[in-house]
Specification:
It is built from 17 helices and two strands. The radius of gyration is 47 Å and the shape is elongated. Among the domains are: 66 residues; 213 residues, MetI-like fold (Orthogonal Bundle), CATH 1.10.3720; 26 residues. The longest helix is centred in the C-terminal third of the chain and has 89 residues. Helix 5 packs across helix 6 and helix 6 runs antiparallel to helix 9. Helix content is 79%, strand content 1%. Strands 1-2 form a two-stranded antiparallel sheet. By secondary structure, it is mostly helical.
Amino acid sequence: MRLSSRRSTWRIVLRRLSNVLVTLLVIAYLTLFGLSMAERGRKGLPAEPLRAAGEACSSLLTYVTRHPTTYYWHKETVSSLGLVLTTFSRSAGLLLLSLGVAAALGVSLGIAMALARRRGGAPLVLLLSILGVSTPSFLFAMLLWVANIQVHRQFKITVLPAAGFGWDAHLVMPALVLAARPLAQIAQVTYVSLSEVLRQDYIRTARAKGLAWPVVRDRHALRNVLIPILNTLGTSLRLSLASLPVVEYFFDWSGVGLALLEAISLGMVPLVTDLIGSLGLLFLAINLGLEFLYPLLDPRLRDANESEPPQERRTWRETMRGLAESAAEWWQDLKSQIAGCKLQIAGRKSQIANRHLQSVVGGRRSALGGRRSALGGRQSAVGGRRSAVGGRRSALGGRRSVLRNPQSPIPNPQSSTVASSCVARSPTPPYCSAPCSSWASSSWPCSAIG
């Protein structure tokens, strides 16, 4: 029985290791594919994902078979393995310390929230945990930096070093920034899980038997919430890995994140792949360790694994057949998704064309309305000119009638002005046949009289 259990354990270990190796190859391929797409965009070339995927395959083959043994780094030639191990050890130490801080503080805050859920402090702690999840890493790092500078200015003391590498006080601020998001998640999960456990019947039974509260809390309650806490700790590691380049660049911590940014700027594709693969290996190793730790913490998982019937061994042909079927299903799903995307694109193009046509028609209608309004203005101007011509014609007809019948009186609005000016000049103008008083009162112009 023990021999069979040992064999099954070794099989599980080998299967997990093979999965880790395949996962690392996939990470390397995706890294090379992303770098190829970025290089094409930098050169102004079209995307062409299929061509970039082929280039990534050839680059992966070259990376595996002809991996460089040395790198020219910081004006000196260094070993590739030594460079990766040095940067990886610095980042791994920082990440493990931040996860430890997050676990210690997060579990403590979660327990405090669960025990004080009927008091006023629990909503405040929940609010702080939500702020920890939603606050960006660079903003939190900047706030810590500003607080450190203000303390130094007020009290003339150096609390923490602002930047740099060192296994001393240099660790504090980067570790706090990396631990912020995992801490908030662990605190929330601990609060929810412990609140549910404290409402169970066996907790009330243990309290009814007279057990002390520390015994009930530690032996009965906390042991049942360790699994979700560890699971959250493993999954929250991805948040720390995502923030690692920003934090190391901000605090000038010479680890994987800072080296990764420098390698990308220098175009060192193999080094970028090595560094991302080392971070992926750290993530897989921590989750693999947690997976083996779960049965030791919870006997129910151990009994469930032992009670499962042994699985039949599959031959390599069956395995390849299963992989081929999975690949065919994936290809069919991809085709259906591409067809759906094409239909959506065609629908959006038709909508855009309809909107453009409507805008063109509306513009033409507005232009036609403007032309019509301009034509109406011109017609009104022509009508005004015609009315002015009619007025002039009527005035000319009146003058002609006066010339034909000089005895008919014609009112003249300027008669008083003309008469006064005439009287002022002479009582009897030489060009008038009568005195000014006689023709001015009859409103006749002097040219018509004389």
